[in-house]
Design goal:
about 270 residues; alpha/beta; 9-stranded mixed beta sheet; about 20% strand
Length: about 270
């Protein structure tokens, strides 16, 4: 038997006896869980619309837990949070049930991604700091500082012309991809966040016409191994701004530790 023939026979024998390699399993679909409960900024409408336009077409499964009434603290479908990769919060001064709060804390303790917009800074804090939640419900007034890294201290009031701009030193940060260095107007009134935590990285700041204050309005942090993105923007009018929509899209994917979506040459950021 010639050498080439011996090699061919050996190859066939190896192929026969070696088990076939199993096909690599398909990657798990990313899953974002949206906790929504605030009446002021209409995020029960704007956030699902954003998710269905920007996230679901990019392969992110989106589950929504929207309070059934403004005076309710009973977030539905909370059991789905345990399977989520990301918790997206748009809540204002609600105290979830003890079980729901336990699920929120478990998600965060596991090092999973968190995104918060606008009133997430006071999501679980009662206005009266001395008040207690009803029996069977729980607050978390330290959530803003401990998890988001913020220091929400009220706002400057309505009707003041406000301009936002990326932080030059963070121009290459992936959350700012596609936004650009130019100032852009934002319609929502500016939140006060003096002295944000030392571990956050501010990405965008905002100033007001005829006032000296400059406030951070978007930042990230990776404290304790998790990825957290927060922006104090998020009013209904903000969702009409291309820069905000790109910022929020990028923030979600950064928090999920995935590459931010890059628009094709012919694609524009949705208005």
């Amino acid at each position: 038997m010639t050498t080439p023939l011996r090699l061919a026979v050996l190859f066939l024998l190896c192929a026969w006896f070696l088990p076939a390699r199993a096909a690599d399993p398909a990657p798990k679909q990313l899953h974002a869980f949206f906790l929504i409960g605030e009446p002021e900024y209409a995020t029960k409408t704007t956030v699902p619309e954003f998710a269905k336009a920007e996230l679901e077409p990019r392969g992110v499964q989106c589950t929504f837990s929207i309070l059934p009434a403004d005076d309710s603290n009973d977030f539905p479908n909370i059991d789905a949070l345990k399977d989520a990769d990301l918790l997206f919060i748009s809540v204002r001064r609600h105290t979830p049930s003890v079980a729901a709060m336990a699920a929120i804390r478990a998600h965060i303790a596991a090092g999973k991604a968190v995104v918060g917009i606008r009133t997430a800074s006071h999501a679980f804090a009662l206005r009266d700091k001395n008040a207690k939640p009803p029996a069977g419900y729980a607050d978390w007034p330290e959530f803003d500082h401990e998890i988001l890294g913020g220091n929400y201290s009220d706002h400057y009031g309505h009707g003041i012309e406000t301009w936002a701009k990326t932080v030059p030193a963070q121009a290459q940060h992936p959350v700012l991809a596609g936004i650009g260095p130019e100032e852009f107007a934002v319609p929502s009134h500016l939140y006060k966040n003096p002295g944000v935590a030392s571990w956050v990285t501010p990405l965008i700041t905002a100033r007001m016409a005829s006032r000296p204050e400059v406030e951070p309005i978007a930042w990230v942090n990776a404290k304790d191994g998790r990825r957290v993105f927060y922006t104090s923007l998020g009013a209904a009018e903000d969702f009409a701004i291309p820069q905000f929509r790109k910022l929020l899209l990028n923030g979600v994917f950064w928090a999920l530790d995935r590459a931010v979506p890059v628009p094709a040459a012919t694609e524009k950021v949705r208005p």
